[in-house]
Each structure stands twice: as C-alpha cells, then as structure tokens.
C-alpha cells in the first residue's frame, strides 16, 4: 500500500513538473504578422478594418495609438494617421473630432 501511495505521489510530481506555461495575455494590439503589414503600408484584413471604423464622437482606442503616426497640432489636439485615414482627436480624452479619408 505504501509503495502505491509513493508511486502515485511521484507520478503526480512528474506530471505537475511537465506542465506547459500558457502564453501571457495579449496586450490588445495587432498580432505580429498584421503589424508587419501595417509597417509595409499594406491594408489590414476586413475584420481588423472594422475595428478602425470610428465615427466623430467616438473615443480612439489607446492600444491602436502605437500603430499610428501621431502629431500634436496645437490646442490640445492630435492628428493620428492610421491605415488610409487621418483622425483628429482631443489629446486628453482621445475623443475623435474629425476623420479624413485618403
């Protein structure tokens, strides 16, 4: 009986030692392959383009800021160029006040 208990405990330790750690949660940004497409100037797939389907009054997603070209334009406003659009946002709140299509 003792041998079987010891064997079971040893087996549990071995199985527990070989567990695989899960990847950390994503940061909410684009996957690496899509990021490379953006850097090359290629369009995103339709599903990802829908995530960029903003309207005036919406709030620009903070995670997407790093993928755009951001410029301060004065009066607490920024211009964000991302994909084929140019967004003008209020710097502090990221509220979209204008959208231009290229």
Automatic annotation (TrEMBL):
Annotated region described as Disordered, given as residue ranges: 26-45
Signal peptide stretch: 1-22
Origin superkingdom: Bacteria
UniProt keyword terms in alphabetical order: Signal
Name of the protein described by the UniProt record: Nickel/cobalt transporter regulator
Origin species: Marinobacter qingdaonensis
């Amino acid at each position: 009986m003792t041998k079987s208990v010891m064997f079971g405990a040893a087996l549990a330790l071995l199985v527990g030692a070989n567990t695989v750690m899960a990847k950390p949660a994503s940061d909410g940004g684009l996957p690496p392959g899509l990021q490379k497409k953006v850097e090359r100037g290629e369009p995103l797939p339709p599903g990802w383009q829908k995530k960029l389907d903003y309207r005036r009054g919406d709030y620009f997603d903070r995670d997407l800021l790093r993928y755009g070209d951001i410029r301060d334009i004065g009066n607490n406003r920024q211009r964000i160029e991302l994909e084929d659009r140019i967004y003008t946002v209020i710097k502090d709140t990221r509220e979209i006040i204008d959208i231009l299509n290229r």
